[in-house]
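Q: What would this chain look like folded?
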Amino acid sequence: MQFCLIGHNFRYEIEKLIRIFLPFEKIEYFDNLQNGEFCLVSEFLGDTAKATLNFGGKVFESLKNIENKNDNNEKDRELFLALAVYDCFTAATGYFPDWGILTGIRPAKLFSRLKKERGETETQNYFANYLKVNPKKLSLCKETLRGEGEITALSSAQSFSLYISIPFCPTRCSYCSFVSHSVESAKKLMPEYVKLLCDELIVTSKIAKEHNLKLETIYIGGGTPTTLSSSDLTVIMKTVNDNFDLRNLREYTVEAGRPDTITREKLLAIKSGGATRISINPQTMNDDVLRVIGRNHTSKQTIDAFNLARECGFNNINTDLIAGLPTDTFESFKDTLNAVLELHPESVTVHSLSMKRSSKMTRLGEIPEIEVGKTASRMVDFALEKLRENEIFPYYMYRQSKTVGNLENVGYSKRGFECLYNVFIMDETHTILSCGASAVTKLRQPNGDYIERIFNFKYPFEYINNFEEIINRKKRIGEFYNTYKT
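A: My prediction, written as structure tokens:
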């Protein structure tokens, strides 16, 4: 598609809006007028934003008068240009995204900020009439905001959470975009990785103690942490227990992950290591869909893993599901959710598929990604209704780019079983000290909003080969907190 930006530079936000409708379309950028068969022209005519879309030979046009034009507000100009573009694409495709033109990953956080500035009524009006967010998503936004608010209030200026990355999986799922290696290709790296990870944890614990930081939550994620042996899990968790001050710890989560990696020995190691919460993640209970996405386990193994975890004493279990998986249908997704509810999990996280691979677009006629998005939208709507019926309520939400239907990921839980870490990291409530390959430390200014990031090397072999540099980067944590000493 040709994208013409005439007299403005609002490329970033308008491109993200185009991606809602055409997630994989190659876009060519021009600062002058083009007239191709697939061409979007965006421009300003005085105080009017104008978009003209040639979509397969059919032309659509929208004009939007810019409000607050006397304020010379660039945000308003960008907003009304986006609305003009949105009008053209909805007219061309007949598709009205649930989140309208909103493309940010934290809609509840945006709602919260605007509510403080404008009040709730005006913010609701802005979401509905200017961002084009439909009523059901607006309601979801407000509900998750209430849940998040109760959790973020637990944090203090000196609070932090600890994230531990285990970037290994049994196999790589077809939809996965995380940095992880299959055990088969990376098995030889695992012993050295575990050793260095423990060294990094020790260094990190010393820094936390030096600056009187208060550990609120721990999250061991991946990848699939249970690709490690029970002895490796014990070593890592013992390192945490021996070196960090756990007196203020509210929650300790381990992603048990894929059912085919879960054994009694590993669950007992996790339990004795101090974990209070685990996640068992089938993604779907349809065996045919599991094969399509490259997961070498069955729905029965999920059931067996749940039952085994209960036997081992776990009373706080989450399960992850994905709406919009290849070949999955609405009826099949309903069956999945009903099967999961029979296991009585304390929480369920419903993700929407984030599309990372190119797909063939049919420019003349049906657009497959839009149809998948419509089905996924029905799936997440059903999940919201069904989980509420079972007194499992939404408490946090975030969004990703190139998600089918421009939809959201929502965490649901029974009252009192919310995952605190999920809220802390999505809200950026407090500092997250992260260890392991691909881990990102987020430093939050005490009593302020400034965020600074420290990146570890992404892949296990890079992590191992550059470990000295990773430890050197940790010094920045102390420098950061020294800056804000009172």
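The first strand starts at residue 2 and ends at 6.
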